[in-house]
């Protein structure tokens, strides 16, 4: 279930974030939601219906024989992507 959130930010920050989100093919809401998920990745276990449609579609398509810590990998990649 989506819920509306009102944030108060500097105008320049919002404009820059909108441009960045557009370059990445995301809405600003998706970008903020992903950022919050990144911050809280170790605090919650996401259920299937909480994943975005894009993630649900891609989930499980990569197979590996190695023991991979996907949460750690996700955290590292999102940190690189968003410069956290």
UniProtKB/TrEMBL annotation:
Pfam families: DUF6364. InterPro entries: DUF6364 (IPR045944). This is Antitoxin. It comes from Marixanthomonas spongiae.
């Amino acid at each position: 279930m989506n819920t509306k959130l009102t944030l108060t930010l500097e105008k320049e920050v919002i404009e820059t974030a909108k441009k960045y989100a557009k370059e990445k093919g995301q809405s600003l809401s998706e970008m903020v939601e992903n950022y919050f998920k990144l911050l809280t990745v170790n605090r919650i276990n996401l259920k299937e219906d909480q994943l975005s449609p894009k993630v649900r579609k891609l989930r499980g398509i990569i197979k590996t024989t190695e023991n991979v810590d996907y949460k750690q990998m996700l955290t590292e990649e999102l940190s690189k992507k968003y410069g956290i």
